[in-house]
Write a structure and sequence with these properties.
Radius of gyration: 16 Å
Structural class: mainly alpha
Shape: elongated
Number of domains: 1
């Protein structure tokens, strides 16, 4: 396969699979850790209004979703990429970071969570996924 096409496929696959992992962990949040009484997370508006009810335990799965989604997406990108494997993995980390920044802007999460999420879930996991995926 043409290396350029393979690299494009690496980014697309990393984004799609990483996003699927992210959504899987987000979907586990309610069933594993019960939502606060009266929380409605079925819509973005409901989620915004419910955020003040959340305790630290309610942020475990969102953090895992962001970190593991980025890690898996970066790993996949590095495995598939024909060249510059770590750079393509880091690109996944940056793209997920952009999504994280958009979430921080749109959702009134506690500052401690927003900081932890933006600092630890994206670039470090992109780097780690790239290192793991680039190994032969």
């Amino acid at each position: 396969m043409n290396p350029i096409l393979r690299n494009i496929l690496a980014v697309i696959a990393g984004l799609v699979i990483g996003s699927a992992v992210n959504m899987f962990f987000i979907s586990l949040n309610g069933p594993v850790i019960a939502l606060p009484e009266g929380a409605d997370v079925s819509t973005m508006e409901g989620l915004k209004e419910s955020m003040s009810l959340f305790e630290p335990k309610h942020f475990i799965f969102p953090f895992l979703a962001h970190a593991l989604g980025t890690l898996v997406g970066a790993f996949i990108a590095a495995k598939i990429a024909a060249t510059h494997k770590t750079k393509f993995a880091m690109a996944i980390g940056v793209l997920f970071l952009i999504g994280g920044i958009i979430n921080v802007i749109n959702l009134p999460a506690p500052t401690w969570f927003s900081t932890l999420d933006l600092v630890a879930a994206y670039i470090p996991m992109g780097w780690l996924g790239g290192k793991l995926g680039a190994k032969k």
